[in-house]
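so my prof wants the structure for this chain in the tokens format not the other one, which i didnt know existed until like an hour ago. anyway here's the sequence
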Amino acid sequence: DEARPLLQAEIARLELAGNEGWQIGTCFRLADIELRAGNWAEAARLATRTLSLALAGGIAQEQSIALMIQGLVQAHLGRLDEAHDFATRAHALADAGGDRTYAVRSLGVLGFIELSRGNAAAAREYLSPATAELRSIGIGELSVSQVVQNEIEALVMLGLLEEAEETIALVEEKGGPTRRAWHEAVAHRGRALVAASRGDLDLAKGHIEGALAAHVRLPQPFELGRTLLAQGSIERRSKQRKTARDALTQALEVFDTLGAPLWAEKAAAELARIPGRAPGGGELTETQRRIAELVVAGHSN
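here's what i got, hopefully its the right format
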């Protein structure tokens, strides 16, 4: 909220000066902000503008940055084939130009695409080298790269829990001195996923509570949705049906509101695994009402 008006004012100043080339970096950063803030339609508009300006400018480094953010936005929107094309082109340009930062970020997009597909092994192929590069570079603010939270999840899905703990420890190390809410939320969620995989559901619940506390200071709804999804899965395994159903319904509503269809499907699939029926007597949520209307209209999916 503090960064947005500063970047908007800079874009206005550059437009008034007729300087299109210098708008690339500002539009890119504003697209990144709107993606984090949950304004995905605006993020998509800004990412498209960034790419258009970069392609017109003809500078390879700027094109790699623009292709990366376009790929990241499209991946969140579930347009994975388009996202893969943008991210692959971004990585090729960054790698050829020796730009380690955006080569890593492009790998992060490719890994997120595979994680969204549910292909943890393919995701790890991109994300683990990216995390290794972040260690090598010495990056402190890990939230910028959009890599480690996805690698943790992929490693847990593969049962590589010790490797997951190593990445979680990196997140804790980098976030500890600054108490960054993003680092705390990601580390606690990662610890919860590891503990649940080991069957320690009480410990997992404790870490989920820590993650949710951090989310109060983190206005990034997609990350909150992922934590609610993890909470619902853990509560379901604990046979706490109501708590599980509530968390998963919230996650579904977050993803549905954002326009994240693949992650909404993950939440819906977890909901479907809860035995029995939800207690009646209450009004439908907006998401439940929309689903009911679509079913009545004859839609099967």
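also thought this was worth mentioning. The chain has a mean pLDDT of 94.
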